[in-house]
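[09:14] KT: can someone run the structure on this one? pasting the chain below
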Amino acid sequence: MLSKLYDFVIRKHLEILTVVFVGISLLLLSQTENHVILSMQTRWQDVTSFMKKPIAEQQRKKKVIEENRQLRMDIFRLNRELAHQQSLSTENERLREMLGFRDTSRYELLPALITYKGFKDGSSIIMLDKGKENKVQANDVIVDKDGLVGRILSSGKRTSIASMIIEPDVRVSVRINPSRVYGILKWHHGDTFVIEDIPTTIEIKPGWTVTTSGLSEIYPRDIPVGYITQVNSSENGFTYLIEGNYYVSFRKLQEVFIVSHDGN
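[09:31] RB: done, C-alpha cells below
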C-alpha cells in the first residue's frame, strides 16, 4: 500500500505541488492588506450587494402588501364593531340580556382579488380569484374595509362569481341607527340608495347610519352599508322616501374580503 502511495506521489508530484502552492497563495491573499486585493474584495462586495438588492426590495414590497391587506381587514372589523356598539348603546342592559345580544365581530375574512368587473346592462358582476379550494360557497358575504359589497353567486375550483348590492333587483334588509327602525334598501343610481315605506311618524335624520339588520338569511347584522343624505315625504304623505350614499366606492374596488356563510 505504501509503495503504491509512493509511486503515485512520484508520478503526480508536479500536480500535487501546484495544488499546494495555489492553496497557500489563496490563503495568503485572503489575509493580506494589499491595496489591489482590498480593491478587488470591495468590488466583489459591490457586485454581490447589487445582486442581493432586487431580492431584498421584492421581500420588502411583499411585506408592505401583506401589512396593507391586514390593515384593511382590521379597519373593516373596527367599522363593524363600531356599528355594533352604536346599536347596543341605544338599548338598556335588561333588553340586551332578554334579546340575547352577542358579539358578532369574530369571524374569518378571506382576501380575494377582483379579476373581472362588469357594469353592463344593469348588471354589477365581479369575478374573484378564490373558489372551492378556499371553501368559498354560494351566498358567502363580500365586504371591503368600508362595508358591505355583495355576495357570492357561484364558486368554481379556483374562482367565484359574485353580485354587488348595486344591482337594480337586489334588496337588503337594513336598520337605520340610532332609531333602530328596519327597512328595505335598494340601489338608486351611482353609489346611492333609497329606503322606502318608513312611516313619517318615526324620526329619521340625514347623517344617520345604515347597517345590515341581521334579519336576512344571507347578510349578518351590523355590517356598515351607508349613511342617509335626504329624508323626504313620499307622494302618499304617510311614508318617507329616504336617500343615502353607500360607504363602499364600488368602481374603485380592487380587493375584497369573503366572509364565510356560517361566520356570523
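[09:33] KT: thanks! Residues 109-167 form a domain with the Thrombin, subunit H fold (CATH 2.40.10.340).
[09:34] RB: yep, looked fine to me
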